[in-house]
Amino acid sequence: MLSDNGLALTTTGLKRGQFFTGDLSTQYKSGNTTVDVKVDTNCNITSTITVNEIFPSSKTALSFKIPDHKSGKLEVQYLHDRAAINSSIGLTPTPLLEFSAAVGNGEVSLGGEVAFDTATASLTKYNVGIGLTKEDYSAALMVADKGETLKASYLHTVNPVNGTAVAAEISHKLTTYENNFTIGSSHFVDPYTMVKTRFSNDGKVAMLCQRQWRPKSLMTFSAEMDPKTVSSTRFGLAVALRS
Fold first, then answer.
1. Residue 67: cis peptide before it, omega within 30 degrees of 0
2. HSE, side-chain direction, 13 A CA sphere, residue 107
3. 57 phi, psi to nearest 5 deg
4. How far apart are CA 183 and CA 201, in angstroms?
5. What sign does the CA torsion over 24, 28, 61, 103 have?
């Protein structure tokens, strides 16, 4: 629910086997500051305070989780028409440092990310990728998992009128020669109802249905099934109420 004073409320739920988990999220906006608070069924409280335009084209966010005293993180973003930079540091004695950057001209973009763990003095992540975006399709090629995985993805808009689109992603492990692929689709049944599907080569099937039942208010139902372990079937329900 979104009130006149800038307060929004969202609830989600997930059923997996005999277990049910959920959370309640609130968001409050005032000027350039946004405060997000989420409480889940395990009594964890996650908070994020975001301030825009401390300096031009920037966004600064402070996040933490209670009772995890090691979860604090400070993140700074800089956005430009042809470039974006994001950096973060964990608020611990031996923090994890993360940095990512991307440049592009609207059609072709190139980016990369790296993470450095000061506790072990080692790089824990480095990825690089290039993307191409056109009016009715986009494609990307990425080297991930510290150079061990090669990924290629493609998205094609079949019918822009009803939002029908198909997508595919293929990954190849350079060390084990293992291949995986995922295909998906999205379609607007009517102006207020969207359906998405996903299928992967390991047999997992997923579906999402989102309905706008009143202006700016959404109800989303999702399900995922693994034929190999039926007991791991998951169902989810999310409701976002805005007035």
1. yes
2. 3
3. 65, 25
4. 9
5. positive
**How far, in Å, CA of 139 to CA of 135, rounded?**
12
Torsion of CA 9, 205, 151, 108, to 10 degrees: -50
Q: Model pTM?
A: 0.74
DSSP-assigned beta bridge partners for residue 13: 22, 237
Q: How would you write the pLDDT of the chain (243 residues) with one tens digit per residue?
A: 445 556 777 878 776 666 777 888 888 888 899 999 999 888 889 999 999 988 888 999 999 998 888 889 999 999 988 899 999 999 999 999 999 999 998 899 999 999 999 999 999 999 999 999 999 999 999 999 999 999 999 999 999 888 899 999 999 999 999 999 999 999 999 989 999 999 999 889 999 999 998 877 889 999 999 888 877 788 888 888 765
First to last CA, the chain: 6
